[in-house]
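Saturday, quiet lab. Running sequence design on the structure tokens for the scaffold JK sent over.
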């Protein structure tokens, strides 16, 4: 069965509702009953619509119950948005993109991207650019692009003089 990607609008969160009520029927995927596991992205926001936390889970509100019991941001959450995806891989890609774009206050994963990445410096430049856009923070990429337009700012080491024979002619053919 192929599931449709479905995005539900932002809605008021009842933080004290029983876990089974956190995902009400009008906010579940239309194919929910035909599948025991549907991967979805959730985004929690504060009363002033600032992103608090973005995460993924499969098929139930149990992860939300964990947040209710353990997360310091739960008392601040006033709104939630839910998006269903066709596979775990696609929901993880969406989660990473959402975190990078919205920069929620309490997320730690995907916030800055990896500290290091191995970038091929030979071959197609487009492949290197795609990797940077996938792995690096957008602000870092913008600053790097700006700096690359200023090559004089980064002096290169002076190469040694060309190799030549000594002036006395002793080693010349």
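Result came back. Writing it out in full:
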């Amino acid at each position: 069965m192929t599931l449709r990607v479905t995005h539900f609008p932002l809605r008021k969160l009842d933080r004290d509702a029983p876990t089974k009520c956190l995902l009400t029927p009008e906010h579940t995927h239309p194919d929910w009953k035909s599948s025991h596991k549907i991967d979805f992205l959730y985004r929690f926001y504060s009363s002033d619509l600032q992103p608090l936390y973005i995460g993924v889970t499969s098929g139930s509100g149990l992860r939300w119950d964990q947040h209710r019991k353990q997360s310091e941001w739960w008392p601040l959450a006033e709104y939630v948005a839910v998006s269903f995806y066709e596979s775990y891989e696609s929901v993880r890609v969406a989660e990473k993109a959402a975190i990078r774009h919205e920069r929620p206050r309490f997320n730690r994963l995907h916030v800055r991207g990896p500290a290091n990445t191995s970038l091929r410096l030979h071959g197609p430049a487009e492949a290197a650019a795609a990797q940077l856009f996938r792995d690096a923070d957008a602000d870092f990429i913008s600053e790097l692009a700006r700096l690359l337009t200023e090559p004089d700012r980064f002096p290169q080491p002076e190469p040694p003089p060309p190799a030549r024979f000594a002036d006395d002619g002793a080693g010349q053919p």
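Notes for JK: The helical segments are 19-22, 62-70, 88-102, 125-135, 138-148. The longest strand covers residues 51-58. Ask whether to fix the surface positions before the next round.
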